[in-house]
Specification:
With 255 residues, the chain is an alpha/beta fold. It is built from ten helices and eleven strands. Strand 8 and strand 9 form a beta hairpin. The longest helix has 13 residues.
């Protein structure tokens, strides 16, 4: 394993799921993170990027592994039945390493095979000082580099954005995240329930496409009782996950 400059960022890689999920079932593996891509599991690319990062010093992997995956992570814990359960397992393992001034946690999914160490370092370096920082990628940038990917886009400040698959947070703010994730995940397909979380006015502004980045920051900051910032990035790989076999074809990526 390459030597890494010790920094204050611990990565939590979410790699849970079910073998019944479409992509995992297609490949005959336990979770999407273990789907082979050019001879290696998807998760191996994320873990290698974290290993090469100058900002990450410890990697907690949440989910089933293979020998290839195990040698790339520092700690491995089982995943839960729900996203929030897996997140709790990963955060628990990361916070068990806590020391005074531990600093930041980087939460990310294991299905980002085009993620690079440079992209991770740039995101961590560019992130504003806040309890939580979430990256968004303009649609034009996403489509330029990954034209075959189908993403969900939201209009903010007259620009269409898609959310990244990473979240940077201060370690001491981690306990505030779980209740919010649990509520949001359960409400994700229920507009009425979702409106009780984000507020009817905010939901309407989203649907009309007239919301702003600053409004999102303020609303989510109020929900979490913490400072939340959105980082606009031109790194499309932060939002390029794999959801279908077609995403694994070389022609689906434009470098």
């Amino acid at each position: 394993m390459p030597d890494r400059m010790r920094t204050d960022t611990t990565a939590v890689v979410l790699a849970g799921g079910s073998p019944a999920e479409p992509l995992a079932a297609w490949a005959g593996v336990a979770t999407k993170a273990l789907v082979p891509f050019e001879g290696r599991p998807l998760a191996a690319y994320v873990l290698e990027a974290l290993r090469e990062s100058r900002r990450v010093h410890h990697i907690v992997y949440v989910g089933p592994t293979t020998p290839c995956v195990e040698q790339l992570c520092d700690d491995q814990v089982p995943s839960g039945e729900r996203l929030v359960d897996s997140l709790a397992m990963g955060l628990g393992a990361a916070l068990a390493l806590a020391r005074p001034g531990m600093g930041r946690l980087l939460i990310l999914t294991a299905d980002l095979p085009w993620l690079t160490a440079a992209g991770i370092d740039r995101f961590v370096d560019d992130a504003p000082a806040a309890d939580f920082v979430f990256p968004v990628v303009p649609k034009a940038v996403s489509k330029q580099h990954f034209p075959e990917q189908t993403r969900t886009y939201v209009r903010l400040d007259a620009t269409l954005y898609t959310g990244g698959n990473l979240l940077l947070l201060q370690a001491e703010a981690a306990p505030r995240l779980l209740p919010f994730v649990d509520r949001a995940y359960r409400a994700r397909k229920n507009p009425v329930a979702l409106s009780t979380i984000v507020g009817v006015r905010m939901l309407v502004r989203f649907l009309l496409g007239v919301a702003s980045l600053s409004e999102v920051e303020r609303r989510v900051s109020a929900l979490l009782d913490a400072e939340v910032r959105v980082l606009v990035t031109g790194d499309a790989s932060l939002a390029a996950d794999v959801d279908s076999p077609t995403h694994l074809h070389p022609e689906s990526v434009v470098t």
